[in-house]
Amino acid sequence: MLKNSVSLVLLVLFFVVTSCDPNRVFDVYEPIPNKWHKDKVVSFNIKAPDSTNAYNLFVNLRNTNAYKYNNLYLIVKMEFPHGKTVTDTLEYKMADPTGKLLGTGLTDIKENKLWYKEGVIFREKGEYKVKIQHAMRENGKVNGVVELEGITDVGFRIEKPNKQ
User: Fold this and answer.
1) How much is the mean pLDDT over the chain?
2) DSSP state letter for 7
3) For 93-134, what is each residue's pLDDT tens digit?
4) pTM for the whole thing?
5) Number of compact structural domains in the chain
6) How far apart are CA 60 and CA 123, in angstroms?
7) Less packed terminus of the chain by CB within 10 Å, N or C?
8) Is residue 70 included in any domain, yes or no?
9) Could you tell me if residue 97 is inside a domain?
10) Helices marked H in the chain — which ranges?
């Protein structure tokens, strides 16, 4: 009986903690099994939030200690409902100068919330598509890294800006 009560309290506490994010509008992850192949595009279909507010957009990543680079290059494409596509090549710092991986987390899995765009207004009604692909290369090599190790999940987040 006591064991069931403790389990119930922990379950309720879990839902309270995870659901208390009033800024979250969209927050989805896609797992990357084993290694992230250079041709693997991670896609997210997003129903446009209201067109009167501005939102902040983030690329979320989870990585392990197997990630051996100080930075990460990504190609992010946003396809609009009426056919326009915006493509950005982005660079993110993934480790400090000593090689210690950045991000949050107490285990060997680190979570990184990386800025993509700020103050975006979704003016077109319909479905947007965000496509994310890594564009890593090693110094002095022309061809890209075929299989990127250490990235376990790729996510995309839309949130309401903090009111100041």
Assistant:
1) 88
2) H
3) 999 998 888 899 888 899 999 999 999 999 999 999 999 999
4) 0.83
5) 1
6) 24
7) C
8) yes
9) yes
10) 2-19
